[in-house]
Amino acid sequence: MSIAVFAIAFFPALFFRRASPDYLESLTEITGVALILLGQILRVSGRGYKSEHSGNGHSLIRSGPYMLVRNPMYLGILLIGLGIVAMLFQWWVLCIFLPVFTIRYLLLIFKEEKKLAALFPVAYPVYQRSVPRLLPSLSVIATKDVGEYLPLKLSWLKKELGSMLAVLLITLLLESWEEIKNTTKDSNKTNDYKSRSSQPVGNL
Fold first, then answer.
1. What is the pLDDT of residues 133-156, one digit of tens each?
2. How much is the pTM?
3. Secondary structure element (H or E) that encloses residue 8, with its range
4. Coil, helix or strand for 16?
5. What residues form DSSP beta bridges with 16?
6. Cα separation, 148 vs 143, whole angstroms
């Protein structure tokens, strides 16, 4: 993580998204914000639902966001990461983000699955076969009510509000900073061109 931060800090032009046509810029920004918000909602729903229904780890949760995927909080992190890449970075950064995410979180998921299989030797294998690990089934999304697989409570939102706002605001600030830099750079190029154009041509 620290290596990535230093690389971005010292070589911002290599990582940050370049200026693009207005319609494409707006589309990527909207997509990025939507992914970040959806990811945050998944994290909040998953964490809040687990805290109320797990019985301190003694009950296997198979409803709420856990009927959508077995790891809704990790899915939320994935969506947040994709949203940040869409808003701030060039698309090739996905080739770094996705393998890093896969290695980092799949190891955690495998470890947790072993623990759950030991705790619930009968129920967990059935749950594994019926609910996907990380990517949701379209049939569940299409046939179930959103309130069933994505429940939310105000108390859950209050607990996570600080982190939700922090991620969104930092991303928006960085995106605005890049826009200002690009605008300034374009303005300087225009002024240089005008300055050269206005210089008198020498006599032949």
1. 999 988 888 888 998 999 998 888
2. 0.76
3. helix 2-10
4. strand
5. 89
6. 11
Q: Is 18 exposed, middle or buried (0-12, 13-18, 19+ CB in 10 A)?
A: exposed
The kind and range of the H/E element at 12 are: helix 12-15
Q: Read off the tokens for 26.
A: 């707006």
- Per-domain residue ranges of the chain: 23-175
Residue found under tokens 């697989």? 149
Main-chain phi, psi angles of 172, to 5 degrees? -65, -40
Read off φ and ψ for residue 183, nearest 5 degrees: -65, -45
Q: Which amino acid is at 119?
A: L
Distance CA 164, CA 37 (A): 8
Q: How confident is the model at residue 158 (pLDDT cuts 50, 70, 90)?
A: confident
> Quick one: tokens of 61?
């949760």
């800090």: which residue's tokens?
9
- Give the model confidence (pLDDT) of 84-126 as tens digits: 888 888 888 888 899 999 999 999 999 999 999 999 999 999 9
- How many residues are recorded in the chain? 204
What is 23-175's CATH topology? Four Helix Bundle (Hemerythrin (Met), subunit A) (1.20.120)
